[in-house]
Amino acid sequence: MEDVARATSVVELFETRDWESSFSPDKQMRAVTALERGRVLFFPHLAFDPDPEARRLLGMAAGDEGRKNVSLDPATGRVHGTSAQDLDKARLGAVMEQFGGRAHALVGALFPRYASRIERARTSFRPSEIAGRASTARHDDKLLHVDAFPTRPTGGRRILRVFANAAPDGVERVWRVGEPFEAFARGFMPKLRRPLPGQAYVMHKLGLTKTRRSAYDHYMLRLHDAAKLDAGYQRDAPRTVVSFPPGTAWMCYTDCVLHAALAGRFAFEQTFHLPVEAMADPTLSPLRVLERITGRKLGEGASG
Ligand SMILES: [Fe+2]
User: Fold this and answer.
1) What pLDDT is stored for residue 59 in this prediction?
2) C-beta neighbour count of 20 within 10 angstroms
3) Is the pLDDT at 2 greater than 50, yes or no?
């Protein structure tokens, strides 16, 4: 089923070369429509190219064995997941902050309707090669999945991620992109168990989740796991291979775009959260899709 020709149906191209570009209303409309319909916005000429000193630090981060991600919390400025110390650690944080700021400017210019409601979350740098990395199926991002995180419930808020391939040596970042979210969810939801009464309350009280897990979060985690653990689905599900060369950037709602990162290294990523009501068409959100399928309210404040 891997069909490169289908790439044009999952990717929407933007020719901009500048992270601080402005966009015409037509382009803004094209961007928000494509994004909310589950396409990947691809910027083939938009490079995030750290200077040589920054590259030295990024190379050091790549040498941190067993570490998948370096992360920056923009609220505190703290950098996690690196053995770099003192000035080097601060400089590494500054490179990541530079990427996060550029990603934020791009999102603000492309989606003016989101600007007052969007929240910048963690910035990450992913130095290590993905191909050949061993992990359990549940943690294996080489398998098709939608993003959902056990300790960080969203309550239905969207997960928008901006990526850039900063590999110095021509190494492409290779993704698989799967079927539309609603088709995927309709296939798996009947097989998933409902949340247990009281479970979200207890997990929050025990400190296992940062906020209380909603029924939406429960189902999204189950969908994430069910897709990864279903070898037949991984083998047979519709998918398209998309390659992102160095010097390019891309973004999508990773909570609805089925994706698998197959290969690549030296990528930057910036996460944003957006309330469903701030979307141009909230009915396209995974929250509203799952509510239509279950016939129940599932977001923050809904009972499990
Ligand atoms: Fe993911």
Assistant:
1) 81
2) 11
3) no
CA of residue 118 to ligand 1 center, whole Å: 20
Number of domains in the chain: 1
Token pair for 177: 């992109």
Going from the Cα of 161 to the center of ligand 1, the distance in angstroms, rounded, reads 10
As a whole number, mean pLDDT of residues 236-247 equals 96
CA of 24 to the centre of ligand 1 (A): 30
Q: Provide the domain limits for residue 33.
A: 4-294
Please say if the pLDDT value at position 162 is more than 50: yes
Q: Model's pTM, two decimal places?
A: 0.93
- Is residue 123 situated within a structural domain? yes
In a domain? residue 299: no
Q: What is the Å distance from ligand 1's center to 141 Cα?
A: 6
Residue 105 lies in a domain: yes
Minimal CA–CA distance to 175: which of 148, 143, 146? Answer: 143
In a domain, 100, yes or no: yes
Alpha carbon of 36 to ligand 1 centroid (Å): 17
Distance 123 CA to ligand 1 centre (A): 14
**298: phi then psi, degrees, rounded to nearest 5:** -125, -10
Q: What is the dihedral of CA 139, 145, 147, 153, to 10 degrees?
A: -80
CATH of the domain at 268: 2.60.120
